[in-house]
Specification:
550 residues, alpha+beta, D-Maltodextrin-Binding Protein, domain 2, Dipeptide-binding Protein, domain 3, 22 strands, 23% helix
Length: 550
């Protein structure tokens, strides 16, 4: 069970407009926040204090210019008692598709998690758990997976979930924006003899990790709400749209509510307002997204680990970075925990390996504790003994300017790495320029982000033909270990990953910084027992409790 955190009343989670994210000592386990300002003057003063901050790396507590801010935080707000909640309401976008294959809006995907199920579901440790899949077999010689469907699995209209339904969904997913990348090695999907057959272009023993794709009934995909097999069914009445518990849910598990109301929220800002006014009671947010805006209101939040990695990419084709000893030193010079807590609102987990620390196979024994002194020693060893009148080497860290959190994180990295022997400067550029320079190899370092599959395949980043291998890395040992990770099965799988991670730590073609988290914001006291995952905020919903006024 994920820990439930309490947002302070009228929490303010909005960063300063210049991207600065001030440190908050001892608050890394929860989003920073405070009380709502009682007077607009104090709001303005607080904004001005934050806007004066130039970055998270050297921020200190600002002087209280009028002596009012300090006293304000010692007082309680005189807010009226909220109206009792008698029904649970979720946001959705009316008129937009709920088809899980094509829906890209997080709000629609959240609702869809109650309507649809996949062959497998990833648990909180990123392990695939069977849902609609009853049995599965991998023929490594023919590169074919055979998956049989549970005989008792039913759609909400009472029809059986068949191999034809699953195959049709997976075929659509192969060309969808949401799922095409994870299925790039799939060459064909078909229903044969009551089973789903999946053909591959190269070995992939970990395919179930990639098959948490929600299945819809074939022939209904063009509807705004395709038929699914989940615990709830979409319905409408004079009061609007709602979800009602399916009487045919094959899992035969109790759900906490028989009805969940839906409220139209046209965009993120509308959903945020509805949450702050208690019109909706659950909202899934990426608080450090490029379009991130403030969150206000009392409530609880639960963090969801994701497979989205932020990292520092290194141009190994440049003379300045061709020495792996220097690249290793740069990796050692990043204080990841401080960066996450002070620059990313604590919305992530520091990582030195290219896998989420929530993954059950993450090997913390391979990590090294951060030390500024250790970084200085490693840098001196890489650069050699300093010479008289030596000028510091210079490196530029590229970052896209649209995301203020990434810019601030890049500034923190540059600050941590810079000393008398090395100067790192940040170059924040528009996204198109950022991408163009990466593709042209016109960079030293870059602050990147990519979504990994739950089998932690980094071929795109370090493979010879990797689509994200902007740093030009490639060696035979890396290729051998990437291949080993794709073919290893059972207990040998973690051993193969460990070998790859050790090699990447030694060669350092890139260095992970952290894995991002999402936040499930909930109205204070309404939910207990939440166990959300990134793809299913309602994972194991049968164990949840919902507390409403009767």
């Amino acid at each position: 069970m994920q820990p439930l955190h309490r947002l302070p009343p009228r929490s303010l989670l909005e960063p300063p407009e210049n991207g600065a994210a001030p440190r908050r000592a001892g608050r890394a386990d929860r989003p920073p926040g405070g009380h709502a300002m009682k007077r607009s003057l104090l709001c303005l003063l607080l904004a001005l204090v934050l806007l004066c901050t130039t970055g998270c790396s050297d921020w200190e507590a600002a002087d209280d210019p009028l002596g009012e801010l300090s006293s304000f935080y010692q007082t309680e707000n005189d807010e009226p008692e909220p109206e009792p909640l008698t029904a649970l309401t979720l946001p959705y976008v009316s008129g937009e598709t709920l088809d899980p294959v094509t829906a890209t809006d997080t709000v629609q995907q959240t609702v869809g998690a109650l309507l649809y199920e996949g062959l497998f579901a990833l648990d909180q440790q990123f392990q695939p758990q069977p849902v609609l899949a009853d049995s599965w077999e991998y023929d490594s010689q023919r590169l074919v997976w055979t998956i049989r469907i549970r005989a008792d699995a039913l759609f909400s209209d009472g029809s059986a979930v068949t191999a034809q339904d699953v195959a049709a969904t997976l075929e659509r997913a192969r060309t969808s924006a949401r799922y095409a990348q994870r299925l790039e090695d799939v060459t064909g999907v078909a229903a044969r003899n009551g089973a789903v057959m999946i053909w591959l272009s190269r070995p992939l023993s970990t395919l179930p990790c990639r098959l948490d794709i929600p299945v819809v009934k074939s022939g209904t995909e063009s509807r705004a709400v395709p038929v699914g097999s989940g615990p709830y069914v979409f319905a409408q009445d004079d009061g609007g749209a709602y979800l009602t518990a399916s009487t045919l849910w094959w899992q035969d598990a109790a759900v906490p509510l028989t009805e969940i109301r839906l409220q139209h929220c046209k965009d993120r800002d509308s959903a945020l307002y509805a949450f702050s006014s208690r019109e909706i009671q659950l909202l899934v947010l990426d608080l450090t997204a490029s379009d991130g805006t403030g969150v206000s209101g009392s409530g609880d939040y639960t963090e969801i680990p994701t497979p989205v990695m932020q990292f520092i990419g290194m141009n190994t084709r440049r003379t300045a970075l061709e020495d792996p000893a220097l690249r290793r030193a740069l990796s050692a010079g990043i204080d990841r925990a401080t960066l996450v807590s002070s620059c990313l609102l604590g919305q992530g987990t520091a990582a030195q390996l290219p896998a989420s620390p929530a993954y059950s196979g993450y090997d913390t024994a391979l990590e090294t504790a951060y030390s500024a002194a250790a970084y200085a020693r490693a840098l001196n060893e890489a650069l050699g003994e300093p010479r008289e009148n030596e000028k510091p080497r210079t490196l530029t860290l590229l970052v896209n300017q649209e995301n203020s959190f990434k810019v601030t994180a890049a500034e923190e990295v540059a600050f941590s790495l810079s000393n008398q022997r090395l100067t790192v400067t940040v170059d924040a550029v528009p996204w198109d320029t950022f991408l163009s320079r990466l593709q042209d190899g016109n960079f030293d370092l870059y602050y990147g982000e990519c979504r990994l599959t739950a089998d932690w395949d980094v071929s795109a980043l370090v493979g010879w033909e990797g689509s994200l291998n902007y740093g030009g890395w490639g060696d035979e040992e890396t290729e051998r270990l990437l291949s080993l990770c794709r073919t290893a099965e059972g207990d040998s799988r973690n051993a193969a990953l460990r070998q790859l991670w050790e090699h990447l730590l030694d060669t350092a073609p890139f260095t992970p910084v952290c894995f991002k988290s999402l936040s499930v914001l909930t109205t204070e006291g309404v939910f207990s027992g939440l166990t959300p995952t990134e793809t299913n905020p309602f994972f194991r919903i049968g164990r949840w409790s919902v507390h409403l006024e009767k």
